[in-house]
Specification:
Blueprint (H helix, E strand, L loop, with lengths): L20 H4 L1 H6 L21 H19 L1 H10 L3 H4 L5 H8 L15 H4 L9 H13 L6 H30 L8 H5 L1 H6 L5 H16 L3 H14 L7 H11 L2 H25 L1 H4 L1 H8 L7 H9 L6 H22 L6 H15 L8 H11 L3 H27 L7 H27 L30 H16 L1
Helix pairs in contact: 3-9, 6-9, 8-9, 8-13, 9-12, 9-21, 12-13, 12-21, 13-15, 14-15, 14-19, 14-20, 18-23, 19-20, 20-21, 20-23, 22-23
Length: about 500
């Protein structure tokens, strides 16, 4: 495997060799021919070179984000406002301009504190987002100018949010590039992900994505308190980041690093409380709207439960119970894999799998949820073929849901009927399940894990990296642990 050595200004090597994707990945190598071939003299990885991996990745991420904004131009011009069907037929829908009015931001209502009139909110009552996301939305409304032209204000509100979300996208790309010191180029998967570009400005998910990505970077740099704080803040913006704490607990239990886990957990809890308690104390009804709505919400777009319901005619009134039971079952299976695997899995692998399990079993799958997995997929399975297969499935679903809504709202039978939409859901489910299977195979058969080809253990695992196990289950795991412990002591 070809590597490139990073040097300091004196010329002495001071950092691990960087792995160019074109040197080890045949798909990346073949794709590089489009831009001039494999890594060359302009692709400097020296710290003094301007074209270092992080700068290249950030520029690519900004370019892809801009292309995603261009894709929304038909709606920016008219689709969001003058034709409900046009925003679906052009596949450029976004929640952002609609909720500017529908959640009271255009009227200067304070999220969680002020009740939104039913005529405006459709009976929602209060903002149905976690507190930190609500703050993000409110800050964007402060920058949006007042005036009598609501359409223009909604356009500006979308632009302001897009600018703030662009910062989140760039932060995410940088965090992924720096999480694994030897493999910064893996973050190109994040920067170039087509489904991420298409969905980046649909909603506010990139805020939580960026916070979690930086939190995992802090864990990789052996700063558990900072990691916990950022995971807690991410959970205050969206629920799903809290899920990574479960697998992290089992990894730390297996490695005997419970003290570090305790620090991360404490940081997460304190950060979440700092954000949430003031709103809980003074606006309880508004604060609990998100949690109550999440619990009572029925099966919705994109979920396996909707597909089953539409195909069988069964309304699946117990979908809450089914989804919870299936999620718990998958978590038990993941826990067994963590504790029985012959070599302790990498943190990013189990983080990807637990969030993917949540996505696969949830009552709703909005197109932008793909953003949750993109950074984790790039770190867990940095193989371009598998990543692009999954992305193709997600792009197919992105187009499928808008064509289905165009069909159901247009009144002209143009678009994708119910059967076609169910097939699009199936494509999304199979694509995500395929990538999960590849990551699980790497966990159980680490000789297939490209990150470990050079003998590494868990380069982005922080205190877990290289640590011998103290608690394992199964004969293969114990034998592998004895060998690993012996090697660790001899070094």
């Amino acid at each position: 495997m070809t590597t490139v050595r990073e040097n300091d200004e004196s010329g002495a090597p001071d950092a691990p060799a960087t792995v160019p994707p074109t040197a080890e990945d045949p798909v990346a190598g073949a794709g590089s021919e489009v831009i001039g071939g494999r890594l060359g003299r302009r692709a400097s990885t020296e710290r003094g070179g301007w074209w270092n991996p992080v700068r290249v990745i950030v520029l690519v991420a900004i370019g892809m984000f801009a292309l995603g904004m261009v894709q929304k131009v038909p709606c920016y011009d008219s689709g969001w406002f003058f034709g409900a069907n046009a925003q679906y037929s052009h596949a450029c829908y976004s929640d952002i301009p609609h909720l500017f009015y529908a959640r009271g931001f255009s009227s200067d209502l304070v999220p969680y504190f002020d009740h939104i009139p039913d005529a405006v909110s459709g009976g929602m009552g209060y903002l149905e987002y976690p507190v930190l996301t609500g703050l993000f939305m409110e800050v964007a409304s402060w920058v949006t100018p007042h005036g009598s032209d609501l359409v223009q204000r909604e356009q500006v509100y979308w632009l302001v949010n897009a600018g703030m979300l662009l910062v989140c996208a760039a932060v995410t790309a940088v965090a992924v590039a720096r999480t694994h010191r030897r493999r910064p180029w893996d973050a190109l998967l994040v920067a170039l992900a087509p489904a991420a570009a298409l969905t980046a400005t649909i909603n506010w998910d990139l805020l939580a994505v960026a916070l979690l990505a930086v939190g995992m970077l802090m864990w990789a740099r052996e700063r558990p308190v900072a990691a916990g704080v950022l995971i807690g803040l991410a959970t205050a913006a969206k629920f799903y980041p809290a899920l990574v704490l479960g697998p992290l607990l089992l990894l730390c239990l297996r490695a005997g690093r419970m003290r570090e886990f305790g620090k991360a957990l404490a940081g997460a809890v304190v950060a979440w409380l700092v954000v949430n308690v003031p709103v809980m104390a003074f606006a309880w009804k508004g604060w609990k709207q998100f949690y109550g709505y999440s619990h009572t919400r029925g099966i919705d777009f994109g979920s396996v439960w909707l597909m089953i319901s539409q195909q069988t005619g069964n309304p699946l009134n117990g979908a809450n119970t089914y989804a919870t039971a299936l999620m718990l079952l998958l978590c038990v299976g993941l826990a067994a894999a963590i504790l029985y695997a012959p070599v302790r899995p990498r943190f990013v692998q189990v983080a990807f799998l637990v969030i993917a399990a949540f996505i696969l079993t949830n009552k709703v799958y909005s197109p932008q949820y793909v953003l949750w997995l993109v950074p984790l997929a790039a770190l867990a399975r940095p193989r371009w073929r598998d990543f692009l297969i999954w992305q193709a499935c997600e792009v197919a679903y992105f187009l499928g849901i808008w064509m289905y809504l165009a069909y159901t709202t247009g009144g002209n039978e143009k678009g994708l009927p119910e059967g076609g939409y169910d097939f699009a859901i199936l494509v999304h489910l199979l694509g995500t399940a395929y990538l999960c299977a590849m990551v699980l195979r790497d966990m159980l058969r680490p000789e297939h894990d490209s990150v470990r080809l050079d003998g590494s253990d868990d380069p982005s695992g922080g205190v877990l990296d290289g640590a011998p196990d103290v608690f394992v289950l199964g004969h293969r795991a114990r034998a592998a642990n004895e060998e690993k412990t012996s090697a660790f002591l001899s070094s």
